[in-house]
Design brief:
Length: 122
């Protein structure tokens, strides 16, 4: 083994299903917070690596700020109804989107960078 734990596809599928069950409600709430550009689902990032076995709600923001610099009404929780939440600052990644599905979740009023594709590379 390479140090990673294989938790099984059924467990990961169940975790994604819980994310999808909460997505619309979370999106309607988080999109009211100033600076939030979109809400989606994807792997949780930890220490610069994406963990595909740990799906979460992803809240895309214009700029990440320290929790102490935000008023209580603008804080994004680390968990929402039993599902982990990851806050991702757009423009601070090597790629303009978190993963190949992210463009679906972004606010359509915010234009994507030119040259960004959302399909697979063959």
């Amino acid at each position: 083994m390479d140090g990673k734990t294989d938790i099984g596809l059924a467990v990961v599928g169940d975790r994604y299903e819980r994310c999808f069950d909460r997505l619309e409600e979370a999106r309607s709430g988080f999109m009211r917070v100033p600076g939030v550009l979109g809400v989606g689902i994807g792997p949780k990032e930890s220490r610069g690596a994406l963990n595909s076995g740990d799906p979460c709600l992803i809240v895309y923001v214009e700029q990440k700020k320290p929790r102490t610099a935000l008023p209580a009404v603008e804080l994004i929780p680390s968990e929402y109804r039993g599902v982990k939440v990851d806050v991702v600052e757009l423009g601070k990644r090597r790629m303009p989107i978190h993963n190949q599905f992210d463009a679906v979740w972004l606010n359509p009023k915010v234009p994507m960078a030119q040259g960004v594709g959302t399909g697979y590379i063959y």
